[in-house]
């Protein structure tokens, strides 16, 4: 069982790397985006398999599941956890203990809670480096309502300043999820423009986290530096849990 799962993951991971390579070549890019495998709904055993295949970046969208998996995989060398889901400020303390990065900072209250929690975690020695923070931007047509979240583009500057000013946080860049029922490409182009603007103020904020299983090629064409891939590596998730 474990061996066939490992073989399945090897095959799927190889296929995704192939897609990334082709998209990078098609875009004429010299850099290659980082692959983060989103492991939500899948067991810690899968994280172990992926680590064995050389993967070091994994992500989750809920604190409870992430905290449990991070604890179960604490023995894996150099594994980095990326928190990509909507975050309540009362979960900041927990996330600051295990997360290398939070991709979904979408309001000042969350940024401030993370700043405080990361500072405390650094002081306790629960973490050794500042928490990487990406601002999640809402790329929807303002009329749409699909609940995917993120800060309004007009609020990015204030959020960026709050993050950049916090010693325990590092302003890494922007993140977005392509809006449902709209083509991904124009949305990612908009994200790329917002990233350019952000970098003109905060040159260190180079990360562009965009691209999931169905739209990674569009994201790579639009300069994504981090891809968040779930189902195309791990398989279909159970519909509800
Ligand atoms: C689940 C999830 C992903 C991965 O999506 P797939 O379609 O499974 O590749 C990426 N980003 C976020 C924020 C997610 O919640």
TrEMBL record:
InterPro entries: Ala_racemase_N, PLP-binding_barrel, PyrdxlP_homeostasis. Keywords: Pyridoxal phosphate. The keyword tRNA-binding does not apply. Its cofactor is pyridoxal 5'-phosphate. Gene3D superfamilies: Alanine racemase. It comes from the Bacteria. The modification N6-(pyridoxal phosphate)lysine is found at residue 40. GO terms for molecular function: pyridoxal phosphate binding. Residues 53-238 form the Alanine racemase N-terminal domain. The keyword tRNA processing does not apply. Coiled coil: none annotated. Belongs to the pyridoxal phosphate-binding protein YggS/PROSC family. Pyridoxal 5'-phosphate (PLP)-binding protein, which is involved in PLP homeostasis. This is Pyridoxal phosphate homeostasis protein. It comes from Garicola koreensis.
């Amino acid at each position: 069982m474990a061996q066939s799962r490992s073989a399945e993951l090897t095959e799927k991971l190889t296929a995704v790397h192939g897609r990334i390579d082709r998209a990078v070549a098609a875009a004429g890019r010299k850099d290659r985006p980082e692959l983060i495998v989103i492991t939500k709904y899948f067991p810690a055993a899968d994280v172990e398999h992926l680590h064995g295949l050389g993967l070091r970046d994994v992500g989750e969208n809920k604190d409870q599941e992430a905290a449990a998996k991070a604890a179960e995989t604490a023995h894996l060398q150099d594994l980095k956890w990326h928190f990509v889901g909507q975050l309540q400020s009362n979960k900041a303390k927990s996330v600051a203990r295990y997360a290398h990065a939070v991709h979904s900072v979408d309001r000042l209250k969350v940024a401030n809670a993370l700043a405080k929690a990361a500072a405390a975690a650094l002081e306790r020695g629960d973490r050794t480096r500042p928490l990487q923070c990406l601002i999640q931007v809402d790329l929807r047509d303002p009329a749409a309502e699909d609940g995917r979240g993120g800060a309004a583009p007009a609020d990015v500057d204030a959020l960026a300043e709050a993050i950049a000013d916090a010693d325990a946080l590092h302003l890494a860049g922007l993140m977005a999820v392509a809006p449902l029922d709209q083509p991904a490409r124009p949305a990612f182009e908009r994200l790329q423009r917002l990233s350019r603007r952000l970098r003109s103020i905060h040159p260190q904020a180079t990360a562009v986290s965009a691209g999931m299983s169905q739209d990674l090629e569009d994201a790579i064409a639009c300069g994504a530096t981090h891809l968040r891939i779930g189902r195309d590596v791990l398989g279909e998730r159970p519909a509800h849990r």
